[in-house]
Design goal:
Elements (H helix, E strand, L loop, with lengths): L1 H9 L1 H20 L1 H29 L1 H20 L20 E11 L5 E6 L12 E3 L4 E8 L4 E8 L3 E6 L5 E5 L7 E8 L9 E4 L11 E10 L5 E8 L8 E7 L2 H16 L1
Antiparallel strand pairs: 1-2, 1-12, 2-5, 3-4, 3-12, 4-5, 6-7, 6-9, 7-8, 8-11, 9-10, 10-11
Helix pairs in contact: 2-3
Length: 278
């Protein structure tokens, strides 16, 4: 008992101050809703900032998963637009095409890529096991990327559009005149569209797309836009510089494109050629 009395005597002023402080705060928050609301708003603001930071960190680490999901959904949309085809991840090439679908789209991830060489290649994480074969087209959400040239069981190598031997039929979307898109080295953002007649009305900013005259890409896949053009001396064609729609330095996810009617079309064309040769 004596110890308790001694404690209160020794700490009298501190205890009195604490009691008065508690009493004054109780009066403030009891009858003053403004202060009470301010207190809780401040607390909520601090808590909200903490939760927001935590959410941002979680979102950052889940970006890859979200990107994968978006790419898969886009592939499904491409397939649904093309017809009622297989929309599963890494679908194998369909042997029959009962629904009239011409192209199938398979998602893939870029695991190696060059842009600073004269012959640039891209490596993907899909191969024979997933149904990839040489000659298939590869495109990004923004535009064309290249053509598959080599395949193993689980990987494939793509001849990038940024390759001296790459050539593909492309056309001016406005007017429909078609020529050949190719890359001459140098700037990874620029390609050359050739064989467009000077009779065509060409403007800077015109859209260039795939012509669909091959078994590689569907018609109207984005290639780029006209950056500049000039007539070729002593010829009847323009030399057209095209700013590519695909940013090859930022490639991460792509679609491997398979033409489900390619074999039938090729067989028919070969048969015709042989018959005419006799």
């Amino acid at each position: 008992m004596y110890g308790i009395i001694a404690f209160f005597r020794k700490n009298y002023f501190v205890l009195l101050f604490a009691a008065l402080e508690f009493l004054s705060l109780s009066f403030v928050f009891k009858d003053n809703y403004y202060h009470e609301a301010g207190y809780f708003n401040t607390s909520n603001s601090i808590a909200g900032s903490i939760y927001t930071t935590e959410s941002n960190i979680s979102s950052y680490f889940s970006l890859k998963t979200q990107n994968n999901q978006l790419v898969e959904e886009n592939a499904q949309l491409h397939n649904l637009i093309a017809g009622t085809g297989d929309t599963t991840k890494h679908p194998k090439v369909l042997q029959k095409n009962p629904y009239g679908q011409q192209f199938n789209f398979m998602t893939a991830e870029v695991i190696d890529n060059t842009t600073n060489l004269l012959n640039n290649h891209i490596t993907l994480n899909v191969g024979k096991t997933q149904g990839v074969v040489s000659g298939m087209g590869v495109m990004a959400p923004s535009g064309i990327v290249g053509i598959v040239v080599n395949v193993s069981d689980h990987y494939s190598v793509v001849m990038s559009l940024l390759h001296k031997n790459f050539q593909l039929s492309a056309m001016l979307k406005k007017g429909g005149a078609f020529g050949t898109i190719s890359w001459k080295g140098g700037d990874y953002q620029m390609a050359l569209l050739s064989q467009i007649p000077m009779s065509e009305k060409v403007k800077v900013g015109d859209t260039v797309v795939t012509s669909g005259y091959s078994n590689i890409f569907p018609k109207d896949v984005m290639v780029g836009v006209v950056e500049e053009f000039k007539p070729i001396p002593d010829q009847y064609f323009f030399s057209i510089k095209v700013r590519l729609a695909t940013n090859f330095k930022k490639l991460r996810y792509v679609y491997v494109v398979s033409d489900l009617g390619k074999q039938e079309k090729t067989d028919l064309e070969d048969k015709t050629t042989k018959e005419e040769g006799h």
